[in-house]
From TrEMBL:
One of its GO terms (cellular component) is DNA-directed RNA polymerase complex. Residues 566-593 form a coiled coil. Belongs to the DnaG primase family. NCBIfam families: dnaG (TIGR01391). CDD domains: TOPRIM_DnaG_primases (cd03364). One of its GO terms (molecular function) is DNA binding. Its cofactor is Zn(2+). This is DNA primase. It comes from Cohnella endophytica. Binds 1 zinc ion per monomer. Keywords: Coiled coil, DNA replication, DNA-binding, DNA-directed RNA polymerase, Magnesium, Metal-binding, Nucleotidyltransferase, Primosome, Transcription, Transferase, Zinc, Zinc-finger. PANTHER family: DNA PRIMASE.
Length: 609
């Protein structure tokens, strides 16, 4: 029933045996001992006091803050943004376990894969060459001076692997040829250009400062070159190649990934130099698009590591318009968005050069405004606020922007600010916002004046799918599952007595997985058990249940089974009573009598429990 694609169970077992969770987690998180647990700051959400725990005895981790939890494989998946097979493979390689299972491409690497491998190597080589030329040649003197003038010290040049492509036609062409690379392939890879007239090949990048661009695994896949002389284009990127897809690549994502994950926040820039300068100012979670607009693919990629995006675009009209356009795309992807409003005609690089690192971070990273605040500021540009007519139109548009926000508190605060600034009454603005929400069918939670109940809303809220936490039978289920994870006999007993009669859906699923786990002759092992779940929510629930630390007792076990059994009968009685009432109303007395008999039988059963 359970399989992991091509990976044999034996490999997964060995991976779990060979990697101690405390040691693996310890590579990313500083852990301190606290009784049976190790505690640390959660790497998956931002926090100031530790709620992240590792239990070596059970080989699981669990965060009380964000709820993430699971075994060592799950931890690596979350940490590295990898799939299950990827994480198993990485852990297996790390422990020297031979990778015997077949991957997606079982045969020889395809021609396409071979081509990509050659291009990776050629890019790596070209990058080293450009870097060497920048640091060691007379021809790069102007380039070096230019960089120094813009505040690039040696450490920055090293960290970002900057280079220089000389003002010649054949520097890279000859070097690649000497290394035995075919010029056709190098042209297809974007490193060389074809000369129209003669049919020969020449360097694509000439007299440019070179910025290597990496993919998510850290391979160099392209370059951006900034022209030193006055010509055009100022920035030249590699073309789209088998390696390089602009709408999926973000400058510096590979290196910034762990900082992004730690803060659950990413800062998006427009320019490569902005990323570098911000990095030197201490902003290590910055990335940039490839001189193109932000795409849904970019957003999805970032969502694996972050919950919040700060748009730090140029202060000019084009930059602000680009930020304005990116907000809906990012909000749709589930991000909280904030925007840095830089002074007009300044980009982040210029600001840092002129005013220094500390004011930049304080004003524009920490001080970035909420998306809606930015939209309101942006809206001012298209209205003439000196005229009454313009003010009215601005207010109307502004209220619409505010009305679209989900949070009633946020709406209230923003409307208050508008009312104060423009000297209008808050009630008027609220009324207008309410009308707009009704028109757009946005729902009116929180906007309804006290006393007038909206029945549709109330109905929607009643009848939650799962009973509230804290109910006796819910706690009993969690307690039972925790003992079942530790002891096979208990699981078998519960299977006989309760089977699938757990109330909470996830608990019923976990029980079913546990029955199956023991039926395959497994011994209790929380880490291994969690590996079979392959479901984020179930893994979280399982890991939190595994941490329940109440000693086992026969009497307590009986109490739990009884509580759950009774609750389950009570629910059945409730259902039958409803049916009985329906039958009576319909005049179907035979059926009503039948229901009555069944209810009495159940009530008897309930007492026996
Ligand atoms: Zn957490």
């Amino acid at each position: 029933m359970l399989s992991y694609g091509m990976i044999p169970q034996s490999v997964i077992d060995e991976v779990l045996q060979r990697h101690d969770i405390a040691e693996t987690v310890g590579k990313y998180v500083h852990l301190t001992k606290n009784g049976k647990y190790l505690k640390g700051l959660c790497p998956f959400h931002s926090e100031k006091s530790p709620s992240f725990t590792v239990t070596p005895e059970k080989q699981i981790f669990h965060c009380y803050g964000c709820g993430k939890g699971g075994n060592v494989i799950k931890f690596v998946m979350e940490m590295e943004g990898e799939s299950f097979p990827e994480a198993v493979k990485a852990l297996a390689e790390d422990a020297g376990i031979p990778i015997t299972w077949t991957t997606v491409n079982p045969e020889e690497p395809s021609a396409f894969q071979k081509e990509k491998k050659v291009l990776h190597e050629a890019h790596e080589y070209s990058s080293k060459l450009y870097h060497y030329l920048l640091l060691n040649t007379e021809a790069a003197k102007t380039a070096k001076e230019y960089l120094t003038g813009r505040g690039f010290n040696d450490a920055l040049i090293e960290e970002f692997g900057l280079g220089y492509a000389p003002a010649r036609w054949d520097t890279l062409t000859l070097a690649l040829e000497r290394k035995g690379y075919s010029p056709e392939e190098m042209e297809a890879g974007g490193l060389l250009s074809r000369r129209q007239e003669t049919g020969g090949y020449v360097d694509r990048f000439r007299d440019r400062i070179m910025f290597p661009i990496h993919d998510a695994s850290g391979n160099i896949i392209a370059f951006a070159g900034r022209l030193l002389s006055d010509g055009q284009p100022k920035y030249l990127n590699s073309p789209e190649t088998p390696l390089f897809n602009k709408s999926k690549t973000l400058y510096r994502l590979h290196e910034a990934r762990s900082a992004i994950r730690r803060a659950r926040q990413v800062v998006l820039f427009e320019g490569y130099v902005d990323v570098i300068k911000a990095w030197s100012a201490g902003v290590h979670n910055g990335v940039a698009t490839m001189g193109t607009a932000l795409t849904g693919e970019h957003a999805a990629l970032l969502k694996r590591f972050a919950d919040e995006v700060i748009l730090c675009y140029d202060g000019d009209n084009a930059g602000q318009a680009a930020a304005h356009k990116s907000i809906p795309l990012l909000e749709e992807a589930g991000f909280r968005v904030r925007v840095s409003v830089l002074p007009n005609r300044m980009d982040p690089d210029e600001y840092i050069s002129a005013h220094g690192s500390e004011p930049f971070v304080r004003e524009f990273i920490e001080g970035a405004v909420s998306a809606v605040k930015f939209q309101l500021i942006y809206l001012r540009k298209s209205h003439i606020l000196l005229e009454e007519d313009g003010r009215i139109r601005y207010l109307r548009d502004a209220v619409r922007i505010v009305a679209r926000r989900d949070s009633p508190t946020e709406r209230e605060l923003l409307l208050k600010e508008l009312a104060q600034e423009f000297g209008v009454s808050l009630d008027t603005l609220k009324q207008e916002s309410l009308e707009y929400r009704q028109q757009e069918k946005l729902g009116n939670a929180g906007d309804i004046p006290a006393g007038s109940w909206n029945n549709v809303w109330n109905e929607k809220r009643s009848a939650p799918k799962n009973p509230p936490l804290g109910a006796a039978h819910v706690n009993a289920e969690r307690q039972l599952l925790s003992w079942m994870m530790q002891d096979k006999e208990t699981a078998l007993l519960v299977e006989q007595r309760l089977g699938d009669r757990f109330h909470v859906e996830d608990h019923a699923a976990l029980a079913a997985y546990l029955y199956a786990f023991y039926a395959r002759n497994n011994d209790p092992d929380v880490g291994r058990f969690v590996a079979v779940l392959q479901d984020d929510r179930l893994e979280r629930t399982a890991s939190s249940i595994a941490l329940i630390d109440i000693p086992f007792g026969e009497r307590e076990l009986e109490d739990c089974i009884r509580t759950i059994g009774r609750a389950s009968i009570a629910r059945e009685v409730e259902r039958l009573t409803e049916e009985l009432n329906r039958a009576q109303r319909a005049g179907d007395f035979a059926r009503a009598t039948q229901m009555g008999i069944e209810i009495i039988a159940l009530e008897k059963q309930r007492k026996q429990y």
